[in-house]
Every structure is written in structure tokens, then in C-alpha cells.
Design brief:
The protein is an alpha/beta fold. It binds pyridoxal-5'-phosphate.
């Protein structure tokens, strides 16, 4: 039986000004402190494995390839007859994005997601970044000093958790159920942050639509309750809507729709899941936050590729609805194939029941360590998933005793995230059946 050997750890982030990292080299020079306690992203590390049954990273497996082929062909012809546009499109541009692309994004956000943007005048509240990952990092960099407190669901997207710890944030994770984050627990976490750390949290992070890693969707009542709570406590909600367009049924409106004055919610989207992985994220940020975030981005990359913005501008103006109409039913088929195979072949446990996105989360009834099982059993059998432990902070706190206390975070190792986005149903079904059989044999 695979047992967790995780030990408890201190919840405070390793101090940014602590011992410099002299261990990593023999040359006499040292590295910044964070290099000693931050490891390579576990999802990146798994990319090196080539397996037949790939259920690990959130790679889109359904791409509008014909559409992009057409866009590139048309663009090539435009550049032949209009070299001036080619020079502009192959050049540097404004750090926050090209005005023509920001206007296109503003229109889509207003029309489809009902975000209250006056497209004529307010398009400048939209910005683009190199993936929404860059926006997550730059927002943390902008909002958090070492020792500041942020609240996340448990489990949570590791691309947010790891930078938060790297930058010295105290992370408090709150429990989630099959509807996602529980506002009453967020309220308790705020109170305990004030009591234990003498400060109110700065950010509540949430992925309301088909969360990563659990795939849960936050009902409207909880969205409203979170908004009201953060409004009364003066806390920023970081609404990461990475999967908002990949939905099998109509979802509640974004939390951002409640933020009429654009003051409370930092809203992030990404073209990675709904277009292609061209490294373009987009955001609607409160004005002062946007200014600081773009200042940060300016020093990180100067700007996002203008050519890529041009390609996506044409896609969002002319093709996205057609691409989503074709793509979403195919993602739904993959989800159904995975859910069915889990239900018929896995040992006793609990799975989530997503209505969109890329992931199902599974928790075993029997204790085992899914990271050890991955290395020892799954990979040798041509299978890859992400062990659930990756979605807990490497240091941080969790609410305990019905929310009256905090304890150092501890990963739940009897869990795994299974991605249904990449492999087609005729790979998902035999792959999940094989995984289920191996789990049943070993647990
Ligand atoms: C919840 C969530 N946020 C943000 C990202 C980052 O996406 P990107 O940088 O490709 O826009 C991901 C990627 O998988 C994600 O799952």
C-alpha cells in the first residue's frame, strides 16, 4: 500500500532575507534565497515524460487549426500588399497591448461575459500579458510584501500558489466542496488572519468556472457572498476565469459583473484554452492596480508580441464563436468518457463532476501516496496524471477546528488531477480503465 510520508511543516513562508543559497553551486557565488526552497513546477517536470495515456497538464487537445491556417494565410497576403502594416505588426508595441486588440477584447468581455465595460471609452481598463500566468505573477508582485496574507481555495492552481510563497505571502487555504470555495470559511479565514497576523488579507484568489484542479463551479449565491464579503473588508478578489469559455452549460455570471465601479475585482482571462497557446492573457484591472501591474510587466518583457495580438484580433473578431461551437461538444465527449471510465473502474473514492474546463479531481477512500504511485506504477504503465499534492502550498496555513484556528498546510496525497482535454475518447477510455485496474490492485 502506498502511504503518505508527508510531515507537518511550519506555515510561514521561508524568509526572503534568510540564508542565501550557497549549496547549488561549487563556484563560490550564491543564488537568491528562493532558489533553495522553490522547485521546478511539478507540471512542467512531468512534461518530459512521453506516455500513451496522457492525463497530466492542461493542454488543449482541440484546436481550431484550420481557422488559424486561414488567418495566417490571409495575413501573409495582407503583408505582401501592405508592408507598412507588416512593419508595425512585427514591431514593439505598448506594454499593456495594442489599442485595436484591447477594443476587440473589451467588446467580447462586454457582449459574452456581460462585464460592465463601456467599449467606446473604457477599453483601456483591459490589458494583455504573456499568458494569464504573467498577470498572476505581476499582480502578486504588485500587491504582496513578505508577510502579507492571501486566501486561496484548498486545493488551488499551483501557478498561483508557488509565486505567492516565493514572494513571501502567507497563504491561508480554505476548504472547498463540490461547489468550490465556501464563503463562510473565507470569512473565518479573514477573522483569523486579523487575530493571528494582525492584518487583513490582501487577496482572495478564486477560479469560479470549472476550477483548476477540482473542476468545480461556484454558484451565483457564493459569487455574490464572496463579493459582498470582500467589499465590506476591502479585499481584492482575483477572479481567474481561465476556463470561462470552455463550458458545457450556461454558467453563472462572472463575479466581475458585480463590480460596477471596477474597484474590487481583478479579472483574468486567457486565449490559451479558447484559441491557442500563443501566450496571451487578458485582464480587466482596477485603474491603479493596472498601472502598477503594467509597470512591472514593462520590466519583465517590454510588451506582448504585436504579431500574435494581430492574429488573435482576427480570431476574436471573426472566428471564436464558430471555434467554440465545434470545440466544446468534443471536450464534453472527452469529459464523459473519463467520468464513465472512472465510475466503472476506479476503487472506492470521490470524483468531482465538472460542467466545463479540463479537469476531474479524484480522492481515494484508501490512504495512498499518488506521487509515489505515479513514479512506481503509473509511468511504467504508460500513464501520466498530476498528483494532488502539487496543488497545496509548500508553506502556508489551513483553517481547522471549524475555522477557529490555523495549522500548517499539509497536502492530501490520496488525490489526483486527471486532465481530459488532451487525449481523445478512444485513448481516455482504455487509459482510465488501465489506471483504475492498477489502483485497485495496489490500494
Ligand atoms: C487556473 C489557471 N490560471 C491561469 C493559467 C495560466 O494560463 P496561461 O498563462 O496559458 O494564460 C492556467 C493554465 O493552465 C490555469 O489553469
Amino acid at each position: 500500500m502506498y502511504m503518505s510520508n508527508a510531515t507537518g511543516q511550519d506555515g510561514d513562508p521561508p524568509h526572503r532575507l534568510g540564508e542565501r543559497n550557497l549549496m547549488a553551486n561549487n563556484s563560490g557565488y550564491s543564488f537568491a534565497t528562493w532558489t533553495s526552497f522553490i522547485e521546478e513546477s511539478q507540471i512542467r517536470a512531468l512534461l518530459k515524460y512521453k506516455v500513451k495515456y496522457y492525463f497530466a497538464g492542461g493542454l488543449p487537445g482541440i484546436m481550431p487549426t484550420k481557422i488559424f491556417g486561414q488567418i495566417l494565410k490571409d495575413l501573409g497576403e495582407t503583408y505582401q500588399v501592405n508592408p507598412k502594416q507588416a512593419i508595425d505588426d512585427l514591431n514593439y508595441g505598448p506594454t499593456g497591448g495594442q489599442p485595436w486588440f484591447l477594443k476587440t477584447l473589451a467588446e467580447r468581455l462586454q457582449k459574452v461575459r456581460k462585464i460592465p465595460i463601456n467599449c467606446e471609452n473604457d477599453w483601456e481598463c483591459v490589458s494583455v500579458t504573456n499568458g494569464s500566468q504573467q498577470a498572476l505573477y505581476a499582480i502578486l508582485d504588485t500587491m504582496v510584501d513578505p508577510g502579507d496574507v492571501i486566501i486561496t481555495p484548498e486545493p488551488a492552481y499551483l501557478g498561483f500558489l508557488v509565486p505567492a510563497v516565493k514572494l513571501g505571502a502567507r497563504v491561508i487555504t480554505v476548504p472547498t466542496d463540490l461547489d468550490g470555495m465556501i464563503p463562510e470559511d473565507v470569512e473565518k479565514a479573514i477573522e483569523i488572519s486579523k487575530k493571528n497576523f494582525g492584518k487583513c488579507p490582501d487577496i482572495v484568489y478564486v477560479v469560479p468556472d470549472s476550477d483548476n484542479p477540482k473542476g468545480t463551479t461556484l454558484p451565483m449565491k457564493r459569487r455574490q457572498a464572496l463579493f459582498d464579503l470582500c467589499e465590506s473588508e476591502n479585499i481584492i478578489i482575483l477572479e481567474d476565469s481561465a476556463y470561462a469559455e470552455i463550458q458545457f452549460k450556461e454558467n453563472p455570471k462572472p463575479i466581475k459583473t458585480l463590480d460596477k465601479e471596477n474597484e474590487r475585482v481583478a479579472y483574468l482571462g486567457t486565449s490559451s484554452k479558447e484559441a491557442a497557446v500563443l501566450r496571451v492573457g487578458y485582464s480587466v484591472l482596477p485603474a491603479t492596480m493596472r498601472e502598477h501591474v503594467l509597470k512591472d510587466k514593462g520590466y519583465l518583457d517590454l510588451c506582448t508580441s504585436t504579431l500574435v495580438q494581430r492574429i488573435l484580433d482576427i480570431y476574436y473578431k471573426n472566428y471564436i464563436d464558430e471555434a467554440m461551437r465545434e470545440g466544446i461538444p468534443k471536450y464534453k465527449e472527452r469529459y464523459e468518457a473519463m467520468a464513465k471510465a472512472i465510475d466503472s473502474c476506479f476503487p472506492a473514492g470521490l470524483r468531482t463532476d465538472p460542467t466545463g474546463g479540463f479537469f476531474i479531481w479524484w480522492e481515494s477512500e484508501t490512504p495512498f501516496n499518488s506521487a509515489d504511485f505515479l513514479q512506481d506504477v503509473a509511468i511504467p504503465n504508460d500513464l501520466l496524471y498530476v498528483p494532488g499534492g502539487a496543488f497545496y502550498p509548500i508553506s502556508g496555513y489551513k483553517l481547522v477546528n471549524n475555522g477557529s484556528d490555523l495549522e500548517p498546510s499539509k497536502p492530501k496525497h490520496n488525490t489526483m488531477r486527471l486532465g481530459f482535454s488532451y487525449a481523445p475518447p478512444d485513448v481516455i477510455t482504455p487509459g482510465i480503465e488501465r489506471l483504475g485496474k492498477l489502483l485497485s490492485e495496489h490500494l
